Amino acid sequence: MESRLCFTGAVRRSGSLLSDFGVGRGLAGWTSRGDRPRALRASSRRGLAWSAETKTPLSNFDADVYVEDSYANTAKNLDVVRKTLNRPLTLAEKVVYGHLIDPTTKVTRGQTYLKVQPDRVAMQDATAQMAVLQFISAGLPKTAVPSTIHCDHLIAAHFGASEDLKVANEENEEVFNFLASAGKKYGIGFWKPGSGIIHQIVLENYAFPGGLMIGTDSHTVNAGGLGIVAVGVGGADAVDVMAGLPWEIKAPKIIGVKLTGKLSNWASPKDVILKVAGILTVKGGTGAIVEYFGEGVDSMSCTGEEAGLKIERCPPTTDSYLVLC
């Protein structure tokens, strides 16, 4: 592997949030389905401009929630955050702090507890059962943010896809029926057994640069391949957000890793992640976002980066990768 790993204490200076997310150059390849979203237009260093014709749904399945609204709120928050902190922000900080409930919060990395508003929630079928029951007890007619259920964890791999799926449908029929009916009643997207694995579905269908997403599965972070900060959480956190309450998290520490050169033909992004994970150890990476930047990022692909500490990254054009530990 030709890449040289150089640690740095500061990761890029505070540039335009919008240019970091690729806005103005055109955002393509957000999903693997159908027509791709049209490019957004940047009107200024910290603002967005759009018309009704160019507003983009948060996903192909969320017709009444728009990416531009999320960006506008993030840009508005960051105007306040920059004045409050009076220092440059890394890309990871722009995403997280841009979703603060109170942007005047004086953040200290690794110490301050933040209240943020995620853009969406994802749940796998094992953890979704209790989460949905708790949400029902809240007495709300619909989730406060777009949410989805993915039936994959209750399918045990033994004999092959077709037979294993048949067995899972028989053994877990009551669970699947409950999740499907609850999803229909409360506006929660339902991915039935056999539709795919949660961490790939969220990457292909729900990720967008600059967003914030939580999911009741540790592999939720795979969505970070398209520049969204995606975090695995417990069911209680998911219920809070679905009910309209903020998500509370300690402000992540930031570890910068500058990559120079490029990957050789026999190396993958996962090799880089495993090397860094070995250097940091679990203790060194806990509670931190590892942000990769530099020319070496250009040779790293969107998929294939999830390993060990879990990986988040942004599109190659943003010159930055993010790993949430």
In short:
Residues 1-19, 21-52 and 305-325 have low confidence and may be disordered.
Give average pLDDT, whole number: 80
Radius of gyration using CA atoms only? 20 Å
Based on secondary structure, the structural category is alpha/beta
Largest beta sheet: what is the strand line-up? 1-13-14-16-15
Rounded to the nearest angstrom, the distance between the terminal CA atoms is: 24 Å
**Helical content (DSSP H or I, runs of 4+):** 25-40%
How do the SSEs run, as a string of H and E?
EHEEEEHHEEHEHHEHEEHEEHEEE
Number of helices: 9
Largest sheet: number of strands, sense, barrel closure = 5 strands, mixed
- Tally the beta strands: 16
Strand content: 15-25%
Oligomer: single chain
Stretches where pLDDT is under 50 for at least 5 consecutive residues are 1-19, 21-52, 305-325
Shape: globular
Structure notes:
By secondary structure, the protein is of the alpha/beta class. The chain has 9 helices and 16 strands. The chain has helices at residues 17-20, 67-85, 91-97, 125-137, 161-171, 173-186, 198-205, 235-242, 269-285; strands spanning 4-8, 41-42, 48-49, 57-59, 62-66, 113-116, 120-124, 147-150, 189-191, 212-215, 229-232, 247-250, 253-260, 288-293, 312-313, 320-324. A 5-stranded mixed β-sheet has the order 1-13-14-16-15, with helices on both faces. The protein has a 5-stranded parallel β-sheet with strand order 9-8-7-10-11, with helices on one face. Strands 2-3 form a two-stranded antiparallel ribbon. β4 (57-59) and β5 (62-66) form a beta hairpin. The radius of gyration is 20 Å and the shape is globular. Residues 1-19, 21-52 and 305-325 have low confidence and may be disordered.
